[in-house]
């Protein structure tokens, strides 16, 4: 059934490829009109955007670095969404997950690198899952709406981090709210270092080993959601809770499970930012990735492959937009945010605007037959 209350004739490839592609095209067309309205050439702007994102090895490294964070948060939103839940607390869960990663790197740095990495992964997952557990429990047992509780927990996480960084974890003798730098064995390998070991030279960038972990997480999420009993129960509870109860599936248990896994995935942002790039605990390292992950999940149709591609798109907008604002000063960073917002608008709120027309093209007999049925 389509979202319009009738059997849908649109094939899966069109739903997962054609519809997002059309929405993305519309977003860039409207963005082009905005650029034209301020007196700049949209073609030139697109050229600088693409060169800034993929023009050389360093730019590609930055694009994939941004992509890594968005894969984690996109997967986090998707897992909860499969259970019928809209988790918009990825920002706070990533913040607290980063705290877990940072505490491991600060206080367990006596461990060898081969042990501290899996412990840091576990720390980020546990802290992120624990922060998501409370809203999940309230939703499952008290009916508190997950949207309200998760967004409020974002603000609580931010306040908690400020207190800890200013009063507890700050490096003695400095005013900046940062911890001491991590020891070398408590930092992730950068990608140029890893490839250099096998004789491949690439430019330096923030891209690090957490990118590979993000891809692995995408594969694991696919296996979990579509190839395990727990994933089946989550999807069933998300689509029809009454049918789930009739089939012996507990919606409450699956709500807690789905949101906790969602929080764990968001917590892995700390691996990239805290252990891989900043190599110290500090404030505001999440930089809005939790909210952008919502758009990534929507555009990627909550499927890991689509999420990776959508994350790459937004990563390119992040990096290419910075280069665009530098090369064409009249297109400021705020203008780049407008372009990102239009992509989110057409991929989210206006996602189904052209779906009836697209569906009519795939019905038997084409548009003429569709008109005849309507009459």
Q: Main traits of this protein?
A:
72% helix, disordered N terminus, globular, mainly alpha, single chain, disordered C terminus, 375 residues
> Radius of gyration in whole Å, from Cα?
22 Å
- State the total count of DSSP E strands: 0
Helices and strands, in N-to-C order?
A: HHHHHHHHHHHHHHHHH
The structural class is: mainly alpha
Question: Helix amount, in percent?
Answer: over 70%
List segments where confidence is low: pLDDT < 50 over at least 5 consecutive residues.
1-7, 367-375
Roughly what fraction of the amino acids lie in strands? under 5%
Describe this structure in words.
- With about 375 residues, the protein is mainly alpha-helical.
- The protein has a domain at about 65-305.
- About 70% of the residues lie in helices and about 0% in strands.
- It is globular, with a radius of gyration of 22 Å.
- The chain starts with 11 loop residues before the first helix and ends with a helix.
Summarize this structure briefly.
With 375 residues, the protein is mostly helical.
